[in-house]
Amino acid sequence: MAKQGALRSEREPKGIPSRRNRAAETPARDLNRLIHERTRLGIISALAVNSSLTFGELKDLLRASDGNLSVHARKLEDAGYITCSKSFAGRLPKTEYRLSAAGRKALERYLDHMESLIRATREG
Amino acid sequence: MPNVKPIRPVEAAPIALDAHARDNLRYIRETMERAASFTAVPGWGGVALGITALGAAAVANRQDSPQLWLVTWLAEAAVAIGIAGWTTLSKARAAGVPLLSGPGRKFVLSFLPSVFVAGLLTVVLFRADFTGAIPGMWLLLYGAGVMTGGAFSIRVVPLMGLCFLVLGAVALFSPAAWGDGFLAAGFGGLHIIFGAVIARRFGG
Fold first, then answer.
1. A49 contacts on B by Cβ (under 8 Å)
2. Would you kindly state where each structural domain of chain A is located, as residue ranges?
3. Are B93 and B45 in contact (CB under 8 A)?
4. Chain center to CA of B15
5. pLDDT tens digits for B48-58?
6. Separation between Cα atoms, residue B180 and residue B59, nearest integer Å
7. Can you give the residue ranges of every domain in chain B?
8. How far, in Å, CA of B17 to CA of B134, rounded?
9. For domain A31-123, is the CATH number 2.60.120.620?
10. Does residue A119 contact residue B22 with C-beta atoms inside 8 Å?
């Protein structure tokens, strides 16, 4: 329940849109703030074109710190957008992430959203 | 005169939403390009290249004159370019990957200088009647091209380049009569092995 509340608050827009941006007001309301954040958007985008990526690969790719990547990956995992599997490669622990169907759908919706924002601003 | 300060801090000019959206889309595309590497490298195409190279090595080995030997391998190169081009294009289309954007373009641009140098050196070595060094030089330069191009690709591609480099280095210091054997092992064997790995692990 608390998780749902947290997710809802991430999706809600903050502040009043400026006059210039009013044309795009309606699409902005549905913005998925969970993947709007840069690192999380990077994780989702990278996983969209790979069947799986390890923690190290994502870290190198996004140039993120261990802590930062870990926190953002956990948020996406909690939302069901990515799945995480832990194993051992020899003696070294290996954390692997995959994009879930919900995550792929969320990214597609986010892309649609960005495109509709651009369209709405042009028309407005 | 009292020092008047605004109650609210003066905000910077707002960034237009559409500019922000464009920036986000650009970020997504760039992240995907960096993460995807060059997925259009054809695995089964590599296997096909390997098979034709094995055939070319068998035919070239039976030729008596250096001219016919060279013609055989040049014909194989033409066939290989055709197979590689067609299978790369097919795989890129099937995967919905633009072939000459981002990593694909980097791959081609990194690979072409080695091919150009190999072409020039082939002419020079052949005219100098030094054909024994040609197989090693081909393997070395092909390996160098694959390695530098593969720096932007899936990890197995630069590894294949490294194997070509090692094989080419050994071939350069081996008897000239073993040239076709080295070419068969490199353009045949390595292409088949790595092609099968790419096809199995990276789809097609």
1. 32, 35-36, 39
2. 31-123
3. no
4. 42
5. 999 999 999 99
6. 10
7. 17-202
8. 59
9. no
10. no
What is the arithmetic mean of pLDDT over B180-200? Answer: 93
| pLDDT at position B30 over 50 | yes
Question: CB A41 to CB B31 under 8 A?
Answer: yes
pTM above 0.80, yes or no: no
Give the Å distances, CA to CA, from B67 to B71, B77, B131, B135, B139: 6, 15, 10, 14, 19
**Chain A contact present for B12, CB below 8 A:** no
Amino acid making up residue A114: M
The closest of B160, B27, B2 to A111, measured between CA atoms, is B27
Q: Is pLDDT above 70 for A5? A: no
**Does B17 reach chain A within 8 Å, measured CB to CB?**
yes
Alpha carbon distance B199, B204 (integer Å): 4
Query: How many Å apart are CA B154 and CA B201, to the nearest integer?
Result: 10
Do the beta carbons of residue B189 and residue B50 sit within 8 Å?
A: yes
Owner of token pair 């028309």: A123
Joined tokens for residue B143: 């390996």
**pLDDT tier at B5 (50, 70, 90 boundaries)?**
low
Residue at B138: amino acid letter: W
Q: How far, in Å, CA of A58 to CA of A76, rounded?
A: 14
What is the 8-class DSSP label of residue A119? H
ipTM above 0.85? Answer: no
pLDDT for residue B154 is more than 50: yes
Distant-in-sequence, close-in-space partners of B141: CB < 8 Å, separation ≥ 6: B114, B115, B117, B118, B121, B168
The reply to whether A17 touches chain B by the CB within 8 Å rule is yes
